[in-house]
Design goal:
Elements: E1 2-5, E2 13-14, H1 26-38, E3 42-52, H2 54-60, E4 65-73, E5 86-90, H3 103-114
Antiparallel strand pairs: 1-2, 1-5, 3-4
Length: 121
């Protein structure tokens, strides 16, 4: 599932994501962000990759590293709970991502498909 971003990282499509809160574990962040953005409940999130987001750095001047997780989905359709940040959510084939696509998201999906922990940009 990907969303069409409208503010930060617009006009890019991206998988759900967000920032760690102080003292939060990666798995807790993934569950919280998914529920906050889409209303979907996930379980058993597992870290599968990290990305070095150099395209975003080149475009925005902000250098980030992303921790990518995969999780179980318990059913349901995503809701647009943050309409000021996301125009829509869409289920997509991970081998055919909509464009333009956000750097960290595109790298995360590539790592998932190729079963790699890191992919050099």
């Amino acid at each position: 599932m990907v969303g069409k971003r409208t503010t930060a990282h617009a006009p890019f499509w991206s998988i759900p994501g967000g920032h760690l809160e102080m003292g939060e574990q990666f798995e807790q962040t993934a569950m919280r962000e998914m529920q906050e953005e889409t209303g979907l409940i996930i379980s058993e999130p597992k870290v599968i990759a990290v990305t070095n987001n150099l395209r975003t750095y080149a475009l925005e001047g902000v250098h980030t590293i992303s921790v990518c997780l995969v999780a179980q989905h318990q059913g349901g359709e995503p809701q647009r709970l943050e309409p000021d940040k996301c125009a829509e959510w869409r289920w997509v084939d991970p081998t055919d991502l909509p464009q333009p696509h956000f750097d960290a998201s595109e790298q995360s999906v590539a790592c998932y498909l190729e079963q790699r922990f890191y992919q050099a940009p």
